[in-house]
Structures are given as structure tokens and as C-alpha cells.
Design a protein that fits this description.
It is built from ten helices and seven strands. With 254 residues, the protein is an alpha/beta fold. A five-stranded parallel β-sheet has the order 2-1-3-4-5, sandwiched between helices. A two-stranded antiparallel ribbon has the order 6-7.
């Protein structure tokens, strides 16, 4: 890797190459992911999205945004404080996501319905809370859509005591094509800079949502989609759509 490649142009060129390839290679899995999403919506289910660290960016891309699906719920470690009554100091622990037992509490606080779909996002796919959430949701009979880097996941040992990784537990896996360690541009002498997984994760999510919406439209059903709250009538219209899922989706200040 040359020093010249470590630049804005270098990242743009390489990341766009990955995205171009991904939009072709991921199509079969995106189709399968769209089927899970459409089936969930038809069953009056909610999409429960969970990730930690930078993967929360993909959760936000799924849950509660303009142009996105209304029956979506964001799960977060912060729910231990917001809804579980824990002292805020518990969030001071940077290794909280690696503790076993956390995901089961988050699941209980969300109180998902049986038909809800779980979308679990993790680049590495090995942190305890991620694997535990997938294990717990699977045990409860939920379908699981995983967004992860298979390259990274296969290149590191399992972190959970079960020996499982996120990809092992999913009904459908969307591979974000990020390299091991996520950063794309290799630095002279070692190391790398400029993470990729958010760009590719967003692409995969929006492709799956678009394809699920296409399937609903083909069946004569209107996808329940948010309008921007910053256009006239958008906020009020969104509230009307949200009433159908009252008590099942959380919309807090962010």
C-alpha cells in the first residue's frame, strides 16, 4: 500500500469498488433478508434492531428514520438505564458489551412479540452481548437477520462461552464485506485507517428495505414508511402510523 493510497481519493476509490461489487454479490442474501422483513410486517411484527459500538449507526439506519419502516425498534445497552432502572454509572464500563447476562435483560425490557424479527449487527460478530442476544432470540423462536463481516468473524476466536458467533445463529447473513479490523486503507509499517462497515452496512440495510417494500407493493400492500418530520404534516402522519404499534416501539430523544 503506497502512501498516496492513504488519502480521501484512495478511500473513495476503494470503498466505491467494494460497494459496486457488494451490490451484485449480496443480491441473493438481500432477497432472503427482504423476505424475512416482509414476512414480519405481514404478521404485524416489529423489527427489533440491536448493535453496540459503531454498529449502532446501522441500528439507527433501521429504526425510526425518514424513509424507513415504522414498525422498528432500537435496542441498546442504554436501555438498562432508560427502561431497566439501573444507575447510569453502569454505562461507564467500556467492557459492558462483553458481559454475559446483559442481552437477556435487554430482551425482557423490550418484551418482543413472537412474530418480531431480530436484526443483530456486529462487524466482528463475537462480542458476548451480541451472540447472547442472537442465542436468546433464537431460543424464543424469533427469526434472525445478521449483518456482520464474515472475513473478520472467521479470522478471530469466538468470545461467547457457547463457542458460537453471530453468523452461526442467523437465518440470513448479510456480509458487509469489511476487512478484518474494519479499516480499509493499510498504513506503511502496519495498521490501517478509515473504517468501511458503516458504508456497506447502510447499503445492505437500504437494499433490503427497498426489496421488502417492493414485495409488499406487488401484493397490493402499502409499506408503513416514515415521512420526514421536517416536512408539513410529516410529524402528525408519523404519529398516526406509530399508534398501530403503541407500546412496542420506542421513540426517545436522540
Amino acid at each position: 500500500m503506497s502512501v498516496e493510497s492513504v488519502s480521501a481519493e484512495g478511500f473513495a476509490r476503494q470503498s466505491l469498488d467494494v460497494l459496486k461489487h457488494l451490490t451484485e454479490s449480496a443480491r441473493p442474501d438481500v432477497t432472503r433478508a427482504a423476505e424475512l422483513i416482509a414476512d414480519c410486517l405481514r404478521a404485524d411484527g416489529v423489527i427489533q434492531a440491536f448493535g453496540t459500538g459503531h454498529s449502532q449507526a446501522i441500528v439507527l439506519e433501521i429504526a425510526g428514520r425518514a424513509g424507513g419502516l415504522v414498525p422498528t425498534n432500537r435496542l441498546s445497552i442504554a436501555d438498562l438505564v432508560l427502561y431497566g432502572g439501573d444507575d447510569p454509572s453502569v454505562l461507564d464500563d467500556p467492557l459492558l458489551e462483553r458481559q454475559e447476562g446483559v442481552a437477556a435483560r435487554l430482551y425482557e425490557l423490550a418484551a418482543p412479540h413472537p412474530q418480531d424479527l431480530f436484526v443483530v449487527i456486529s462487524n466482528s460478530g463475537v462480542n458476548n452481548v451480541i451472540v447472547e442476544m442472537a442465542l436468546h432470540a433464537k431460543k424464543q423462536g424469533h427469526r434472525i437477520l445478521a449483518i456482520t463481516s464474515l472475513t473478520h468473524s472467521r479470522g478471530v476466536p469466538a468470545g461467547h462461552s457457547s463457542g458460537h458467533k453471530l453468523a452461526d445463529l442467523a437465518d440470513v447473513v448479510l456480509d458487509n464485506a469489511a476487512p478484518r479490523g474494519d479499516a480499509l486503507l493499510e498504513l506503511p509499517g502496519g495498521g490501517a485507517v478509515s473504517a468501511l462497515s458503516t458504508l456497506t452496512g447502510v447499503m445492505l440495510v437500504q437494499m433490503a428495505v427497498a426489496e421488502a417494500s417492493s414485495r409488499l407493493l406487488a401484493a397490493g400492500e402499502k409499506p408503513p414508511v416514515y415521512v420526514s418530520a421536517n416536512v408539513p404534516g410529516g410529524f402528525e402522519g408519523n404519529l398516526e402510523l406509530e399508534r398501530r404499534y403503541a407500546g412496542r416501539i420506542r421513540r426517545t430523544a436522540s
